[in-house]
């Protein structure tokens, strides 16, 4: 049930966070250490099962708290960033409380909360969610189950009414569970198809053997087959109670009025006597070694330790230690510039009684990971023996404290910070962590290092890349002659308290719109002033296209250049540059897409540093040799990686032979590159007249302009303006390719076709409306209803339109068991054909319009979302008020226009199908 939930904030060079959501497990990339690998493979490694790891406190002067007579704790945090509100209901129950033999009971009950309650059917719930914008989520952890809504402020009461109904009772019928079981079992199979997930579960089993912490919330197919509706209802009746819940509300709300609504809706729900919780008894940690194959293009070496838990007095010191070891100034990350590792990082996660931490390094395919494990252990032992540098401890403390202010820049992040503090950590406020961190001393950090980073009991793991077999043309394209009659969409009557959500939502013009400026050197500057925090966020992009701009036989030059920016500027080398960032607790990334997040008082210094790095990169010779070798190693691995082969197969089938979009770097082309090639490419591509900067935060347009001109004003463009847009192409022919992937149990299927339509075509708007009838609001949309709710064939299915200025792609992604690939595709084709031949219902049309208009409103729930939105519009040469204009256009779209657009552009029989996994059936 994934929505466009707020992106996990960047935190030093962490790994990726493994975050279980009700809709799926998905991976979020953060930081620097894994950055270069992510550009090759996208998803790297998922290990932590959590909510916001290290997402710490957001201070706020307007916080209202209360505990109702039935025990429900309520926290309301006022934030005026946007006219939206996030509600999070935190039930203090998770996989720890699952009955023996049924590890996924809490997860299953989370799913069933969307399958109907007394007074609220699943169809009604889906329709309400869609009408409010479809921004909803849920997740299950070891000790917590959370339910999220982010809605326009006028829909807050409806969202709270939904949660109150769900807190009062559950249906949990055997019939509904029988329908949902197929979907949740597909989720299990999906994750068991991921070697990284398998490693995470084995690691948890070793770290916490014999305790409830040893298993995550996912569950197993075998246990779900034995689960009944009655068992689920008992679990709900035992644990879902107001006195076992915390409600957090954050957004642009009136606290007193909101509290009155909460009391009216939740106050009469009876409290319950809660069962005893299973004890968490941890036995002494025993060392263990694990080896697994993976479908990545590189190997991973991991060393894991137990770490202070949330209830430990050493928790704050552990957080600081983790940040220190993840620093780009620390010895672990130094393996990368030394050419000894492709990436290196350190991270930690805390459960109440105990936590864990891990150091991770990537190595090239074909190498042995054991020496890397020993290298990691040696580095960790060095810190244990010699102590942690005090300057890194102070930098880590500054950074953690700065995150408190950054947290105010996201309505959803603010709600999550309070939920994390109260529901997971057991604090009275997020401020508690900040106060504890500020008191951490060097002795505290070194004591934690000595007590927890013990190599003799460490768990080690090596993931060795397993090459894919060669892609082959599929004998079974996944199409079938089986006939499926489309179901008629039922008209759903909403409860009286939710009837208003179907009314069209008006998108008002913002009183203080962005200021759009053009600097003398051709750079575009967009500034949006917000006052929700004392911070400034900057996002910039140098418009570029390596497929057109890289000289012949110089493929990969852009990859090497991207890897060299982290080596500082001509004025500040790598370590000096990072130290300067640490002094102001700034988060910075530099490349064709660059960003800065900094407190207002350090905005000038932050812009000075990012401009120095971007405009005057060091590009040192020795670093070039290291990055060139790393890039070549990664490319050699990716050529046999299933993930890369899937993308390559799609492009080859979609684009004409010799199309520049088919160019890609190979080890041999990278090995022939020189530093001069990289320097020449930099000067040709990085130009102010191809650059847009967006600044959002507590800064006026005048202040932003002065600062940007001060540090970017002398940057000049030379030579002719480069071409960055591909030429239009004709439509593709149908094809089917299978990329063998022995790591997968479930098939991952991508259907794509090229469209002649571009973003400027008026059919863009009816296509978007139709797309949101197919997908985007869970069971209220056709694909989810037909493929998941009704048949249980898939766990996730998403349709998308990748629209460009000169060429576009329409696609559908889904995952299912091999015998069901053709069945699922047949339903997809049927639903698409139905869109071309029949008029969508008035209810579907209205719902899709509302969903799109709400998305416009909800796109401004964070400063990063606002900044990236303006940046995307600028890159497409669209007016900055295009979302408001689009909302008006969506409201005027007719069912006939939707049918005509789908008839004109979508070709269900001409998909390119690429399947990763076993041969589809």
From TrEMBL:
**What keywords would UniProt list here?**
Membrane, Transmembrane, Transmembrane helix
Q: Which InterPro entries match?
A: Metalloenz_LuxS/M16, MPP/UQCRC_Complex, Pept_M16_N, Peptidase_M16_C
Q: Where is the composition biased (Polar residues)?
A: 471-483
Transmembrane intervals: 40-59
Q: Where in the numbering of this chain does the Peptidase M16 C-terminal domain appear?
A: 230-398, 673-852
Please give the residue ranges the record annotates as the region Disordered. 465-486
MF GO annotations: metal ion binding
Q: Which domain of life is it from?
A: Bacteria
**Pfam families named in the record:** Peptidase_M16 (PF00675), Peptidase_M16_C (PF05193)
List, for all copies, the residue spans of the domain called Peptidase M16 N-terminal.
73-218
Q: What protein family is recorded?
A: Belongs to the peptidase M16 family.
- State the protein's name: Insulinase family protein
